Amino acid sequence: MTAYKFLICVFLLSIFGCHAESREQPKGGSLVLDPAVGIALTSFSDLVTTHNAKAFVELAKPSGIYVVRQFTSGNLGSRGSEFGAVVSPLLINEKLELPIENQTAFNIEILFSGLPIKSIDAISIYTLPTELEQLPFEHWGAILNKDLLGKPEVDKGDALILHTTTARYWVYAEAQIIDGILVGGFAVFIIENNKPLLVAIIEYL
Fold this sequence. Notes:
This protein is of the alpha+beta class. About 30% of the residues lie in helices and about 30% in strands.
C-alpha cells in the first residue's frame, strides 16, 4: 500500500511539474534567441563600445548597409533632410560614424547609448509581422510604432530584441514611444546562409 501511494505521489508531482514548466515563457514572449543571432548581437555590442571599425565591417553585409534617418518628432526647421540609402560599411571611421553627404554623420555609439549588453538573456524578445519583410526599411516606422506601443520596455527605454515571424530579420532596438511618437535606434540583421549580417540601421529622431 505504501509503495502504491508513493507511485501516486510521483505521478501527481510529474503532472504539476509539467504544467509549471509549460507556463514558463521567454521574457517578452515568442522565440528563444537563435544562438548565432546572440553571438552577432554580442559582437555588435562589443564593437560599438570599443570603436572597432574593422569588426563592424566584418559584421556588416558586404554589399552595404541601408541607413535610414527620419524625424518622427518633427524637423523643427534645422535638422536636415530625412535620409534613406545604402552606405558602404567600409566608410565607417574610428569614431564609428557613417558619413552622410551634406548631413550630420550617423554616430552609432550615440544612437545605441545603452550598450554594452550586460546580459543578452535578460533582454525581452518580441515578434514583428511578416509584412515587414516586404517593405523598404524607410516604411518600417508605422508598423514598429504600432507593434511596440504599450510594451513596458519601450515605456522605459530599455533594449529589445525583435524578429519577424519567419526569423529572417532580427533587430536590436533601443527605443521609446513618447506621446505616440517612436524615437530611437534599430540595428537590423538579416539571416543569409545561416549567418546574421548587419543590413540596416534605422534612426528615428
